[in-house]
Amino acid sequence: MTQRPPAAASTARAYADAMDRIAEELDLVEGAMHEQLASASEVIGLLAEHVLNSGGKRMRPALLVLSAELCGYTGPRRSHLGAAIELLHTATLLHDDVVDFSAMRRGKPSANALWGNRRAVLAGDFFYARASSMIVEDGDIGILEIFANTIRSMAEGELLQLQRSFDPSVTENHYFQVIERKSAVLLSAACETGSILGGVTRAEHRRLAEYGKELGIAFQLRDDALDYEDRESDLGKRPYDDLREGKVTLPLLLALKRCSASERDEVAGLLKAVARRADEGEEVGDIDLGPAIEVVRRHRGVEDTVRRAEAHALRAHAAIAPFPDGDAHRSLRAAADYAVSRDR
Predict the structure, then answer these.
(1) Diameter of the chain by CA atoms?
(2) 233 within some domain
(3) Quick one: pLDDT band at residue 233, thresholds 50, 70, 90?
(4) Is residue 232 pLDDT above 70, yes or no?
(5) Residue 343: inside a domain, yes or no?
(6) What one-character DSSP code corresponds to residue 109?
(7) Is residue 93 part of a domain?
(8) What burial class does residue 324 get, using C-beta atoms within 10 Å of its C-beta: 0-12 exposed, 13-18 middle, 19+ buried?
(9) Crossing angle of helices 290-298/250-258, nearest 10°?
(10) Are 8 and 344 in contact, with CB atoms under 8 Å apart?
């Protein structure tokens, strides 16, 4: 019988306990990020404070801290590198919001909505630069290589996604290429960086990198499922934003594989209408998204996406199974479970 992750309430508690246990280290990460964002530009200061104070799960530095602990390292490089990886993540969010014309981020106006696209892009570049400087300051060539490859991969992922926007013929292979490059690669980098700090074997590096990749895929699958759950107040953003932006994510992709030809044609027409509005730089406005939403509901797109996420979370568990049990191991297992059970 296939194992299923624990219930949502218990995984949320376990993950909260794990974050509480490393709260002091995450406070150091937070402080290091703020220190790095001093600038002669007043706009950079205001924008940086807005972005950093908008919340965020800080999952990537947490995974780095826990992976290093699992491998026997608890020194100060954890907070320094954790801050670098979160600044890198923040840079990608600034750029993503511009690319996607997003007006909201974590329930608040996005930086591009407040300061405009040009300033948001330049601020993202500034975040990238500061993150890169922190990696250079650390001085480990292996970690520098991980970060360089991660930035390249994330840029490729964004371009791959744009390449097939508004396209109902997107394949699962293409979809997973996108989410592995855009999302999973950064969580994998965080975990592998932690393993390097611990000085473990190459095989153990690979195991933690695999754990991070599988968790990252599970996290993104859950994110894509949440977008089709009409709970704006919980999510801090409008539901169905992926659909408005022309992203054929797994819930819709699975539904399109199962639906009738007439249903598929109706969704294709809807995506074309949304694409025309996007080309004209306009909001979706009065376009009825109902046909696509109903196809996803009728053909169990959300439920089956969540099941896929659960399978990847179990693979994350398997990747770190050979490591010794202990607080860090339990915390990493809790993070993998939380990735698929969270409701925001």
Answers:
(1) 60
(2) yes
(3) very low
(4) no
(5) no
(6) E
(7) yes
(8) exposed
(9) 70
(10) no
Around Cβ 159, how many Cβ atoms within 10 Å? 13
What pLDDT, on the 0 to 100 scale, is given for residue 1? 39
* Percentage of residues in the chain having pLDDT higher than 90: 79
Give a yes or no: residue 2 inside a domain: no
User: CB under 8 Å, gap of 24 or more: what pairs does 13-22 form?
Assistant: 14/330, 14/334, 14/337, 14/338, 15/334, 15/335, 15/337, 15/338, 17/334, 18/62, 18/66, 18/330, 18/331, 18/334, 18/335, 19/62, 21/327, 21/331, 22/62, 22/65, 22/66, 22/69, 22/331
Indicate if the pLDDT at residue 235 is higher than 60.
Answer: no
CA distances from 284 to 165, 273, 344 (A): 15, 8, 24
Q: Flag whether pLDDT at 17 surpasses 70.
A: yes
Concatenating the DSSP letter of every residue in 168-205 gives TT--HHHHHHHHIIIIIHHHHHHHHHHHHHHT--HHHH
Q: How many CA atoms lie within 13 A of 171 on its CB side?
A: 3
Distance, CA of 241 to CA of 220 (rounded, Å): 14
For residue 5, the number of C-alpha atoms closer than 13 Å in the C-beta half-sphere is 32
Residue 42 has pLDDT above 60, yes or no: yes
The two three-digit tokens of residue 67, written as one number: 């992976």
Residue from 331, 291, 258, 318 nearest 18 by CA: 331
Claim: this prediction has a pTM higher than 0.70: yes
Return the DSSP state at 240: T
Per-residue pLDDT tens digits for 300-338: 999 999 999 999 999 999 999 999 999 999 999 999 999
- Is the pLDDT reported for residue 283 higher than 80? no
Our count of domains for the chain comes to 1
- For the residues 203-230, what does the mean pLDDT come to? 96
How much is the pLDDT for 237?
A: 65
The parent domain of residue 95 ranges over: 8-154+162-335
CATH of the domain at 191: 1.10.600.10
The dihedral through the CA atoms of 130, 131, 134, 136 has a sign that is negative
CA distances from 224 to 111, 193, 249 (A): 22, 27, 6
